Structure prediction request, 134 residues.
Amino acid sequence: MNNTMILVAEDNSTNRELIRELLHARGYGILEASDGEEALALAKDNKPALALIDIQMPKLDGLQLVRLIRQDPEIRTLPTVALTAFAMRGDREIAIEQGFDGYVTKPISFPLLLTEIERCLALANNKQAISRSA
Prediction:
């Protein structure tokens, strides 16, 4: 049984429910936030292994949220994946430049989302192993 905790920051309840069902089926634990402020508080309080963050959310949008995460010493290394309807050329690069580790467009392809989750978690685990051995 997987007890990895993933934060899902998404203001659309239908999208949150679909992601929750997918991640539960894979054995992940879920924290849910419907806006950026709630997501930041959950990240600080719970230290999840990964955050899936919608770009367009109330209170703090995804870009503002990831900037605040990267500035916070306690959660700055939290792997983050952008969830976005922005699918124009260059949008992925902008998200990565702003601090996201991964990028998935909407409508969400669940196989692609799972691949990005696994890639970002593996990358984070590798970084932790390197920092422990240094």
In short: Residues 28 and 91 are 28 Å apart (CA to CA).
